Amino acid sequence: MAETSLPLVLVDDPLPDLVLELLQGRVHCLPWNALQRNGLTQADAIYTYGHPMVDGQLLDRLTGIRVISNHGVGVDHIELAEATRRGIPVGNTPLVLDGATADMGFALLLAAARRLIRGDHFARSPEFLHYDPAYLVGREVHGQTIGIVGLGRNGLQVARRASGFDMQILYHNRRPRTDLPESLRASYCELDCLLERSDFVVICVPLSKQTERLIDRERLAKMKSTAILVNIARGAVVDTDALTEAVMSRRIDAVALDVTDPEPLPRDHPLLQSEHLVIAPHLGSATEQTRRAMAELSIDNLLRGLNGQPLVHQAN
């Protein structure tokens, strides 16, 4: 490894050009495969763009780590307790992507409710010879009941969009929020009650030990048979096997996913064969403006940590 006066940062590659541009001249990037190829044992920081595992074993191996910076909100690939025990701050980027992720959630909700993907395929096919008013009749969105599981920053943005559709808004948190604007007209209820009453259920909770497989077979059974489930949080919040059964048996009307468990699903997974699935490849934050903001914030966190300064946002 070449000598350098710049801080050494282990990065999972390939990084997008924008991130490389912002890092240039400020740090020296070490590709993740240097762990095996060069037997890397020392670095000043870790920067994660995808989801490489950062656990106690890795942190034991690498001496000198001063900060871990994640390009994104979810840090379930980083063992926060191990980082905290070593006094290593972990930065993430929750302040800049809530709007884009909520937009994606509502796009998925609308696409599933109005059979948009199937309609697109049919409109392109040779079978579309004349207009048929009985074909692909979907679900109303305006004025219906939406249940938001997790009314944090992201969930609140979903609620604001639902308000624009004059929807009745239910939400479930660990505890009711007392700081919501009255104009939102959002009502707290227990999770089972929310599932029973909602026409649309949108999952917005972060993944944790408490929320892993929160939506399981028993809870899916509580949903209306006409309901649509949308997940823009983490795939593992929903039990994939139970969800597949619920969709394939038409226990629920449809599902719209930006995240899955595992991610991606195996190409022969039965859920992918269902016409009642709308799916995107984890595009929640995928706008030019949001991705730039995420890159800038994650690198700001990185540089602050290297300089011994408080991070803009710290996950641990």
Fold and architecture overview:
The chain is of the alpha/beta class. The chain folds into two domains: 8-96 and 289-306, NAD(P)-binding Rossmann-like Domain (Rossmann fold, 3-Layer(aba) Sandwich), CATH 3.40.50.720; 98-279, 3-Layer(aba) Sandwich (Rossmann fold). It contains eleven helices and twelve strands. The protein has helices at 17-23, 34-37, 56-61, 80-85, 98-113, 116-124, 153-164, 191-197, 217-220, 240-248, 288-306, and strands at 8-11, 28-31, 45-48, 67-70, 90-91, 145-149, 168-172, 186-188, 200-203, 228-231, 254-257, 277-279. The strands form two sheets. Strands 8-7-6-9-10-11-12 form a seven-stranded parallel beta sheet, sandwiched between helices. α1 (17-23) packs parallel to α11 and α5 (98-113) packs across α7. The longest helix is centred in the C-terminal third of the chain and has 19 residues, at 288-306. The chain starts with 7 loop residues before the first strand and ends in a 10-residue tail after the last helix. The model has no long low-confidence stretch (mean pLDDT 96).
